[in-house]
Amino acid sequence: MSTKVQPFIEHLVELRKRLIIIVIAVVVGMGFAWNLADEILVFMEKPLTGATYLDAAKLKGYRYLKERFPAIYNRTNLEQELNKPRKQHALNYTAPLEPFFIQCKISAIAGFVLVLPIVFYQVWAFIAPGLTQKERRMVVPFVTTATVAFCVGAMFFLTTIWPFIINFSLSYETEGLRSWLSLSSYVDFCLRLILLFGLIAELPVITLLLSRFGLVSYSFLATKRKYALLASSIVAAFHSDLVTMFVIMIPLYLMYEVSVWVALLFGKKKTEDETKPEVDVVLG
Fold this sequence. Notes:
Elements: H1 5-33, H2 37-44, H3 46-49, H4 53-68, H5 70-75, H6 78-82, E1 91-92, H7 98-114, H8 116-127, H9 133-136, H10 139-170, E2 181-182, H11 183-200, H12 203-212, H13 218-222, H14 225-236, H15 242-266, H16 272-275
Parallel strand pairs: 1-2
Helix pairs in contact: 1-7, 1-8, 2-7, 7-11, 8-10, 10-11, 12-15, 14-15
């Protein structure tokens, strides 16, 4: 076996080892999360109940107009809107085992989130042989920051973006148009975006590592903003509706801007020898 092929085979063996550990960890996490699947589904269905920050803000705005501007309030018939009973929306399934498979999907994603520290540690362990001794000491900050960032991104989506998407969808209901939401479509859409927003939140963490290792710099990232905007648009374009495209593209590009400033504040500083221009000295 040639010397060039052998290191490649060793990397594949190491990658397989790390992936097996990750899969086992996710399966174990899935077992712990199995009994939490119902509570998670209830939380995902919260926008269907009208008990979100958007509904609360709308009602607060109506009451403010009623107290401060009663003429406008009465002219726009907001009293009827304020006293309108909340519509009850329910998810529907058509296949006999559909709820079971949905519980499996929710448990798998929840189990993955539970074992995120193990997942990120395995990622670090795979790249650690290529790092210096000093860089390897960053394992705890990396695992902690990456785990927190993913959870923050996922929770930001569930508490802010998801209610907006569902409220926008339900706003098209009329007397002759009713929503009939599929359980699988609703949950799959939500889980996919949870993972996507969690990964989007990892962008500053990745940039922090790369900048500390000297692989990227503020000047490099700052000049690539137009390409970042284009890449954000391409990623968002994989979703069919314009609303979802924008709620993905905007946070994704904002995370790139955060990454630019992360590289500026925490990036590896060039030494005096690296910044000094080379000058040919001619000795007389």
